[in-house]
Design a protein that fits this description.
Blueprint: E1 4-5, E2 14-24, E3 30-40, E4 50-53, E5 58-64, E6 67-68, E7 74-77, E8 80-83, E9 92-100, E10 110-114, E11 117-121, E12 141-150, E13 156-159, E14 162-168, E15 173-184, E16 191-194, E17 197-204, E18 210-217, H1 226-243, E19 251-257, E20 264-265, E21 270-274, H2 287-302, E22 311-312, H3 318-336, H4 339-358, E23 370-371, H5 380-397, H6 399-413, E24 417-418, H7 420-431, H8 440-443, E25 449-457, E26 462-470, E27 485-492, E28 503-505, E29 509-510, E30 513-516, E31 520-526, E32 533-536, E33 545-547, H9 552-561, H10 565-588, H11 598-608, H12 614-621, H13 626-633, H14 639-656, H15 658-667, H16 678-698, H17 702-710, H18 714-727, H19 732-744, H20 749-760, H21 767-776, H22 785-798, H23 800-803, H24 809-824, H25 826-833, H26 844-858, H27 865-875
Parallel strand pairs: 2-12, 18-19, 19-21, 22-24, 25-33
Antiparallel strand pairs: 1-23, 2-3, 3-9, 4-8, 5-6, 5-9, 7-8, 10-11, 12-15, 13-16, 14-15, 17-18, 20-21, 25-26, 26-31, 27-30, 27-32, 28-31, 29-30
Helix pairs in contact: 1-2, 2-3, 3-4, 3-5, 4-5, 4-10, 5-6, 6-7, 9-10, 9-11, 10-11, 10-14, 11-12, 12-16, 14-16, 15-16, 16-18, 17-18, 18-20, 20-22, 24-25, 24-26, 25-27, 26-27
The structure holds (3S)-3-amino-4-(1H-indol-3-yl)butanoic acid (HT7) and zinc ion.
Keywords: Aminopeptidase, Hydrolase, Metal-binding, Metalloprotease, Protease, Zinc
Domain Aminopeptidase N-like N-terminal: 20-188
InterPro entries: Aminopeptidase_N-like_N, Aminopeptidase_N-like_N_sf, PepN_Ig-like_sf, Peptidase_M1, Peptidase_M1_dom, Peptidase_M1_pepN, Peptidase_M1_pepN_C, Peptidase_M1_pepN_C_sf
Length: 876
C-alpha cells in the first residue's frame, strides 16, 4: 500500500456542483446511475483530467452531457475512472452507471445486505465501492437520491435529507426520492431499504420547529428502541442548551442493523447503528449497555454539527470531528449521570487503551501526518486522546472562553471542510492566547511523563513543586519538545482542608491550575504554614503519567479527604498498584503474597462510607485490572503471575472485609422494578462488586448461584453468570447456569454475544480449548462482527492468561482466524490483530512465540491493506 502524506494535500481540479443518484436495488446486481455536475476550478490546469475513485467497481457506461463518450476519452479500472478532454470553464455533466453486488459485500463497506436489509457504510472510503466519485471529505455537494426496489421485500426506502415523494414503479416495484439540501461529503451518504419496524416520536426545537424522529428496527424489536429514543431527545435538548446547536432537517432517522463494523455512523439525517447500541430492555441489556446506548446515540447526533455541518478537509483531520464529538458526548453523559464516576470510567478506558497504543508500535499523533490505510486510524488516540486535547483547551481557557471559541468555530466554519488549525485558531482568537505550544498535543505522539518532587520549607513557609516532563520517542518521532500541560491541583492540610497559598511563583498559575510549559519547572507556593499534601492532576486535567512517589500516608489522606472524587479514586489506585506489582514479584519468586494494611484500610473505609455514592464505591472496589498491572510493570510480562497475585490480594481484602461486603449485598438489594438510571445502576454495581468479593472470600459458588437464580434483570444475571464462570469454571452450578442462559436467550443474538464473551474470558490456559469448541458451535457466525468480537475479540483483548498461554498455542489459533477473517472483512481482521500490539513487552518465551505467529501473518499472501499496515507496524 502506498503512503498518503498530509503535505501532499491539494484541492481537487474540479468543483462538484450536484449529485443525482438512482439505485435500482437487487440483492446481487444493483444498478447505480450517478449524474454529476462539475466545473473546472479557477486557475487550475485547463488540461487536467477528471480522476474519480473506485473500489472493486464494474463500469457499465459513461456519458458526457448525456452522450456516451468514446472509449479513448476515458480509462476505467475497478479502482479509478479517468476522463480526459473536459471543458476549461463551463459546467458539464458526467453520468456513470455501475453494477454492484450487495449480497457479496462481506467487507460491510459501501452498499451491503444485513439480515435482508440493504444498508450502506461510506466512511471513510466506502462510497467509491458504490460508484466512481471524488471520494474525499472536502468535496461537498447537494444530493438527490432515487431508490427503486421490489415493493414487497422493501416497503421502506430511505436516504439522507427530506422525503420528496414516491410511487409505484412497474411490476411489483416502487420508488422513493430524497433530497438533502445540506452540501455534504460522500462519506455521509446513506441508503437503507427493506422491511423494518418503526418507533416514532417528535421533537420541537428551540426555535419551535417540529422534527419527526424515527427509529427503525427489526419487526418485533420496537419496544427495545424506547430507551434509544429517550436518549436521542435528551441529546437534542442538551446540544441546544449547552452548545446552542439546533437540528436542521424536518426528519431524523436511525436504523439499527445487526452486521456493522463499528458502533454507529452519523450519515446526515439517517444514522445507521450497530443494533447493539440501539436495542435495550431490562431483561436483555445491562446497565453498561444502557450507558453505551445513551453515549453513542448522543455521539452520532452531536456529529450533526461537529462532523456534518463542519466536516474535515481531509482524513488527517479526523480528530477534528471525532475528538471533539467524543468530548461532547463525555460532557453529555457527565451531565446526565455522575460526573466523577463518568470521569473515572473515561480515565480507566484511556489508560487501558490509549496509553497502551501511545507507548507501542502503533503510536501516532492525534493529527497524524501520514497513513497507509485510513481505516486503521479510527483509533483510541484520534478519538479519546483527541477528546482529552479538547478538554484541555476548555480547562486552559475556562468555561466562558471555551464556549465563545466554540461559538466562533460554528459561526466561522459552518459549511466548511475545516482543519485542526482552523479549530485551534478560534480559541486563540477569543482568548488572545498563543496556542502554538499547546498544539503540540495534536502533533506529538506519546504520553508525557511528568516527574514530581515536593519540598516544604517550614521556616520560609514555602512549598516547592518541582516538575519535569518527557515524552518517549515514538515511531517516526525520535525527539520531542516540551508540551503545555495544564495540571489541576490542590494543597491539602493534615486535616484534609484545602490550603490557599498567599502567592505563587515559577510559572503561570490559574485558579487551582499549574501551566507546566518548560521541560523542568519549579512552582513555589508562598505563605504556606504547614506541610501540605499535593493532590495533582485533579479530575485528570491532562492525559499524562505522573511519576510521583507519594507516601502511603499522603495517598491515604487524599483518598479520605479530597473534594475531587476522581482524585480520591486515583489515590486508592496509587496505593494499590505498588502492592499489586510487588505481589507479582512475590509470585514469580515463589513466595507468598504479603502486603501491608494501608490499602486495605483505605479501601474498606471508602466502601463502608455511606455518604459516598454507590457507583463510586463500586469503582473503588474494581481495583486496577490485570492489564493495568501489566502496564505499570512495563515489561517482562508474565500474565499468569499477574493473575495469581491480583487474585491473592483480592481474596485477602475479601476476607478482611467480608462483613462489609455481605452487608452491602443486602443493603443494595431492592424489590423495586428495574430502572436504567445512574442511581439505580450504581446500586447494582456496588451490590455486584460486593458479590464478587463475597464469593472469593468464601471460595464457594453458592451466593453467585443464588444471585443468578433470583436475578430479574440482565445486569445481575450476566454478572452472576460471569462470577460463576470465571471463579468456578466447570462446577455444576456454573454448567447449569451457562446452559440455562444459552437456552433462555437462544433467539437473541445480542444476549448470546454475552454468553460467548463470558466464556471467552474465563481465565486460564483452558481458554483456548473453550474458544475452539465455541468456534465450532452452530451459534458462532464468523460473518457477524459482533459475534466475532464477542468470542475472538474478548479472548484476545480480555483474557490475558488464556490468550498469552506460555506455549503460544493461542497465538497460532487466533492468527489463523485473523487470516481467515481478512479474506471476508479486512477491517475486522486488522482490529483483532491490534490485540497483539504489546507482544514485545511479554517475557521472552511468550514474546518469541508471539513473534513467530505474527511472522506467519506477515508472510501470508494476499493480505489486505488493512492487515498489512498493522502487521508491518507491529513487527518492526
Ligand atoms: N464516524 C463513524 C466512523 C465509522 C467507521 C469508520 C470506518 C469503518 C466503518 C465505520 N463505521 C463508522 C463513527 C463515529 O465515530 O461516530
Ligand atoms: Zn464519531
Amino acid at each position: 500500500g502506498q503512503v498518503i502524506n498530509l503535505a501532499d494535500y491539494r484541492p481537487t481540479d474540479f468543483v462538484l456542483e450536484r449529485v443525482d443518484l438512482t439505485f435500482e436495488l437487487d440483492p446481487t446486481e444493483t444498478k447505480v446511475e450517478t449524474r454529476l455536475i462539475f466545473h473546472r476550478r479557477e486557475n487550475t490546469n485547463p488540461n487536467a483530467p477528471l480522476v474519480l475513485d473506485g473500489d472493486e467497481l464494474v463500469l457499465s457506461s459513461v456519458l458526457f452531457d448525456q452522450i456516451e463518450i468514446d472509449s479513448e476519452r476515458y480509462t476505467a479500472t475497478p479502482d479509478s475512472l479517468i476522463i480526459r478532454d473536459l471543458p476549461a470553464s463551463e459546467p458539464f455533466e458526467i453520468t456513470i452507471t455501475t453494477l454492484i453486488n450487495p449480497e457479496a459485500n462481506t467487507q460491510l463497506m459501501g452498499l451491503y445486505r444485513s439480515n435482508g436489509i440493504y444498508c450502506t457504510q461510506c466512511e471513510a472510503e466506502g462510497f467509491r465501492r458504490i460508484t466512481y466519485f471524488p471520494d474525499r471529505p472536502d468535496v461537498l455537494a447537494v444530493y438527490t437520491v432515487n431508490i427503486i426496489a421490489d415493493k414487497a421485500a422493501n416497503p421502506l426506502l430511505l436516504s439522507n435529507g427530506n422525503f420528496l415523494g414516491g410511487a409505484g414503479y412497474g411490476e411489483g416495484k416502487h420508488f422513493a426520492a430524497w433530497f438533502d439540501p445540506h452540501p455534504k461529503p460522500s462519506y455521509l451518504f446513506a441508503l437503507v431499504a427493506g422491511d423494518l419496524g418503526l418507533v416514532e416520536d417528535t421533537f420541537t426545537t428551540m426555535s419551535g420547529r417540529e422534527v419527526a424522529l424515527k427509529i427503525y428496527v427489526e419487526h418485533g424489536k420496537e419496544p427495545r428502541a424506547a430507551y434509544a429514543m429517550d436518549a436521542l431527545k435528551r441529546s437534542m435538548t442538551w446540544d441546544e442548551e449547552t452548545f446552542g446547536r439546533e437540528y436542521d432537517l424536518d426528519i431524523f432517522m436511525i436504523v439499527a442493523v445487526s452486521d456493522f463494523n463499528m458502533g454507529a455512523m452519523e450519515n446526515k439525517g439517517l444514522n445507521i447503528f450497530n443494533d447493539k447500541y440501539v436495542l435495550a430492555d431490562p431483561e436483555t441489556a445491562t446497565d453498561a449497555d444502557y450507558a453505551n446506548i445513551e453515549a453513542i446515540i448522543a455521539h452520532e447526533y452531536f456529529h450533526n454539527w461537529t462532523g456534518n455541518r463542519i466536516t474535515c478537509r481531509d482524513w488527517f483531520q479526523l480528530c477534528l470531528k471525532e475528538g471533539l464529538t467524543v468530548y461532547r458526548d463525555h460532557e453529555f453523559s457527565a451531565d446526565q449521570r455522575s460526573r466523577a464516576v463518568k470521569r473515572i470510567g473515561e480515565v480507566r478506558h484511556l489508560r487501558s487503551e490509549q496509553f497502551v497504543e501511545d507507548s507501542g508500535p502503533l503510536a501516532h499523533p492525534v493529527r497524524p501526518s501520514q497513513y497507509k490505510e485510513i481505516n486503521n486510524f479510527y483509533t483510541t488516540t484520534v478519538y479519546e486522546k483527541g477528546s482529552e486535547v479538547t478538554r484541555m483547551i476548555a480547562t486552559i481557557l475556562g468555561k466562558d472562553l471555551f464556549k465563545q471559541g466554540m461559538d466562533l468555530y460554528f459561526e466561522r466554519h459552518d459549511g466548511d471542510a475545516a482543519t485542526v488549525e482552523d479549530f485551534v485558531q478560534c480559541f486563540a482568537d477569543v482568548s488572545k492566547r498563543d496556542l502554538s505550544q499547546f498544539s503540540l498535543w495534536y502533533h506529538q505522539a506519546g504520553t508525557p511523563h511528568v516527574t514530581v518532587s515536593c519540598d516544604y520549607d517550614a521556616t520560609a513557609k514555602t512549598f516547592t513543586v518541582k516538575l519535569a516532563q518527557t515524552v518517549a520517542p515514538t515511531p517516526g518521532q525520535p525527539d520531542k519538545k516540551p508540551m503545555h500541560i495544564p495540571l489541576s491541583f490542590a494543597l491539602l492540610a493534615n486535616n484534609g482542608a484545602m490550603i490557599t497559598p498567599a502567592s505563587t511563583s515559577g510559572g503561570e498559575v490559574g485558579e487551582n491550575l499549574l501551566h507546566l510549559t518548560e521541560a523542568e519547572q519549579s512552582f513555589v507556593f508562598h505563605g504556606v504554614s504547614e506541610r501540605p499534601v499535593l493532590s495533582l492532576n485533579r479530575s485528570f486535567s491532562a492525559p499524562v503519567i505522573l511519576n510521583f512517589a507519594q507516601s502511603s500516608d499522603d495517598l491515604a489522606l487524599i483518598a479520605r479527604c479530597e473534594s475531587d472524587l476522581f482524585s480520591r479514586w486515583q489515590a486508592l489506585t496509587d496505593l494499590a498498584l505498588p502492592v499489586l506489582c510487588e505481589g507479582v514479584k512475590q509470585v514469580r519468586a515463589g513466595q507468598p503474597v504479603l502486603f501491608n494494611d494501608a490499602l486495605k484500610r483505605s479501601l474498606l473505609a471508602i466502601i463502608a462510607d455511606e455518604t459516598l455514592e454507590p457507583a463510586f464505591r463500586a469503582q473503588a472496589l474494581a481495583l486496577p485490572s490485570e492489564a493495568d498491572i501489566a502496564r505499570e510493570l512495563g515489561g517482562d510480562i508474565d500474565p499468569d503471575a499477574i493473575h495469581a497475585a491480583r487474585k491473592a490480594i483480592i481474596a485477602d481484602i475479601a476476607i478482611a472485609g467480608l462483613d462489609i461486603f455481605k452487608g452491602l449485598l443486602e443493603q443494595m438489594a431492592t424489590d423495586a422494578a428495574y430502572t436504567p438510571d445512574a442511581k439505580a445502576a450504581g446500586q447494582r454495581a456496588l451490590k455486584n462488586a460486593a458479590l464478587t468479593y463475597v464469593v472469593q472470600a468464601e471460595n464457594n459458588p453458592l451466593k453467585a448461584a443464588e444471585a443468578y437464580a433470583k436475578a430479574d434483570n440482565m445486569t445481575d444475571l450476566s454478572h452472576s453468570l460471569s462470577v460463576l464462570a470465571h471463579h468456578f469454571p466447570g462446577m455444576t452450578e456454573t454448567k447449569a447456569a451457562l446452559t440455562d442462559f444459552e437456552s433462555r436467550f437462544a433467539n437473541n443474538a445480542l444476549v448470546l454475544d454475552k454468553w460467548f464473551s463470558i466464556q471467552a474470558t474465563i481465565p486460564g490456559e483452558d481458554g483456548l480449548g473453550r474458544i475452539k469448541t465455541l468456534m465450532q458451535s452452530p451459534k458462532f457466525n464468523a460473518a457477524n462482527p459482533n459475534r466475532v468480537r464477542a468470542l475472538i475479540g474478548s479472548f484476545a483483548f480480555s483474557n490475558p492468561t488464556g490468550f498469552h498461554r506460555a506455549d503460544g498455542a493461542s497465538y497460532s489459533v487466533v492468527t489463523e482466524e485473523i487470516l481467515a477473517i481478512d479474506k471476508r472483512n479486512p477491517q475486522l481482521a486488522a482490529r483483532l490483530l491490534t490485540s497483539m500490539r504489546t507482544w514485545k513487552l511479554l517475557e521472552p518465551q511468550r514474546a518469541n512465540k508471539a513473534r513467530a505467529a505474527l511472522t506467519t501473518i506477515a508472510n501470508a499472501n494476499d493480505l489486505s491493506n488493512d492487515v498489512r499496515d498493522i502487521i508491518d507496524r507491529i513487527l518492526t
